[in-house]
Queue: 3 jobs
Job 1
Amino acid sequence: MSERIGFVGMGTMGSGMAANLAAAGHQVLVWNRTRAKAEAVQGVEVADDLRQVSAECDVVMICVADTPDVRRVLTGDRGLLEGLRSGSLVVDHSTISPAVTRELADLVAGDGAAWLDAPVSGGSEGAQRGTLSVMVGGDAEQLSRARPYIEAFAATITHVGPVGAGQTAKLVNQILVVVTQLGVSEALLLAEAAGLDLSSTLAAVEGGAGGSWMLSNRGPQMIGRDWRPGFTIDLQQKDLRLVLETAERLQIPLPGTALVHQMYGSLQRRGLGGEGNHGLVKALEAMSELEVGVEEQPGS
């Protein structure tokens, strides 16, 4: 029998995920700090507070920005924890600290509830199209319970281990994202400097060994100088902070990731943190006094 689904966080990712849940025929009760954003999502009901979400829904999904935000929606005044009960399931799709994830899972377990950490990858496009990749930590039986709902917005769902493992796998994903984006940025800068047609060059290489999701999806945006975010620099930096904190705890070197973190920091200093993470190329452009691509013409 289908359970009523609660969803907290109607941001760039959460709004698309909740809309896909509703489109799949599920009853969805949502909450967002700014109520107007929740009311803009098609096919859902809007809760008055977080306690209502957890009191009225057996499965509650969360997709908010950072570790303190997850803690706040769970433990704050009239937060989710007040409405959770034995048998409830919390599925956290945010990207947060693996250590804090385990702490919060223990906290809800005190009320007889279960926790899955299930961060997502695929950008705002994936959230809207229902093609996200989800890496899940927690009990396999709880994932079986949640899987029919996650399938409404995900094409790939992978159980990677116990609670906290999903968040750690997401950090692995973010290393691949940013280091690949650095490669895409350097490659297109070289093509620009050499006078190649960028669109033709992209078409020539994306089907070969150098192809990647970042190249195919963010490369055209870079060529058109379209900096609208599928994922912002500010959020990327938050994730890289978690990556580097974990690397320090494990005492392993991640020099490429650290370099990208510093480059994004230089862009934040310029006030570009709200742009897409493919704006990394602007750090290289500043050093080379060269711009990749051309400004799109109005109506193009």
Note: The beta strands are 5-8, 28-31, 45-46, 59-62, 89-92, 114-117, 120-121, 132-137, 154-161.
Job 2
Amino acid sequence: MERIGFVGLGTMGASMAANLARAGAPLTVWNRTAGRASALLELGAREAATPAELAAASDVVVVCVSDTPDVEAVLFGSAGVSDGAAPGALIIDCSTISPAATRDFGSRLAERGVGMVDAPVSGGSEGARLGTLTIFVGGSDTDVARARPVLEAIGRTITHLGPLGNGQAAKAVNQVIIGGAYLGVAEGIVLGIRAGLDPHLLVEALAGGAAQSWVLANRSGPMIDDEYPLGFRLALHRKDLGIALELAAATEVMLPVAMLAAALEDRLLEGGHGDEDMSVLARAIRELSEPVTEPQAGQD
């Protein structure tokens, strides 16, 4: 495997980088916040002081950060990847960002002789840890073929969907569908509880029919318990829905379920729930289902 640089050691990135290290990749890592690389150093990785230093030591650089401005800063900011990447290097962006921005970044990198593949991932922290992520890939045939050994170390389902930016467009579709799935399960769980059903027996029954889904199997428990430990942050899904809704506007598509999910997520963000798992959508349904207390006569 070529020399790999990995930028971004958050919840997803740290596990993805660890899987690359375990696959035997010569690995250099960098993270904006210091102190996240210790476990990777134990696996044999080395830590760079800047993205430029990392790129200079790498043939392929994987980026996994939060949003479009973060990718731009890592690639083109002071001491960014583009400052250190040699002609012939390849950037694999596993972040979830704007398809249009992805194409712009690819053009800017191409002027320096550097290739780019967009490869946003799905599968949550569990998939990142287990190396079973689904990866939506955009880029030229040549660049994608070169990227594939890296992607195979971190994911299980890898689909090349066309030119650069198409991976991000596919991820936007994925996030729209996920939003609807979480919202549907949240509504069903709250309705079942309010109807007096045993929610655990209810989930068991639903799992045997057409309502079965990954969300039902893996996130109904937190919804029942009304506790939402981190799996995929609500704030990040809301960011992803924003990208999807921008794409929908550009393509003149109406997405009423995604718009509803976005509005409910905004309500939860205002309530301070952005760092909880997105199954916290069930809390919004619970809150909306609380009876409104009318003021007593004579009270203001």
Note: The domain at 168-289 is CATH 1.10.1040.10 (N-(1-d-carboxylethyl)-l-norvaline Dehydrogenase; domain 2).
Job 3
Amino acid sequence: MIIFKMKKLLFVVVALGVFLQTANAQDQIIYTSKNLPKQDTTWVFKPKNYTSKEKTAVIFLLHGYGGNYKQWDNIMNAQKYADEYNVIIVCPDGLFSSWYINSPAKKDSQFESFFFDELYPDIKRRYAVDDRSIFISGLSMGGHGALHLFIKKPELFTSAGSTSGGVMLRDFSAKYGLSALLGNPNKEDKIWDDYSVVPNIYKLQSTNKPFIFDCGSEDFFYAYNNQLKQKADSLKLNATYISQPGAHNKAYWTKSIKQQFEFFQKQMIK
């Protein structure tokens, strides 16, 4: 059943478990998924000149631990970026602490499956997406998530990024809800490597697709991003690493996301 109200531009798609509200160029979609413990709210920012007749690049932006789908807009003014770079920006909700993985311990926390099986194809159905220009990035937990998903299915993305990413999970085993997601393993258990970016980055050797990651020198994730840089270099991956002054905060991400968008713009096929 579809209900349409002209005054509020409100669409309710009951059969699909999806709620869509449109306000100007910004859409709000609410997903009900068997893969998630609760509904997921996603903001989509379309560029001001968007038309369904013209294919448009897409950038998925994943928020950090404890944040939600509004975090990126609070940092960067997502509509401004959508207009400036002529891209569709998609900001899903990582449900506070999903780490964007399929949890082996929580059967209703399968964000990776939700992303690939539901969110990604739904965005392509709803919007005129340019398949040649699909990107993903994120901050902190979302930086981990973006590279994790890129490693899983690089064929679905043109490029990926991470800013202040939590790319090595073992040393944070007692924090950020990680133990609950992974089944409360010992710090020595192999599962920490199974779900971390650094030990799995070698899987990108089969592709020459570019990716970018950065971290501030005062960030508690800085040493781990340096490890990722060393690993990427040893594997001769097509990686760009930016090490610069900054901490794990909004001021840093306001600067770094601009750098990532500039990087992605260079990969967009005109």
Note: Residues 55 and 130 are 5 Å apart (CA to CA).
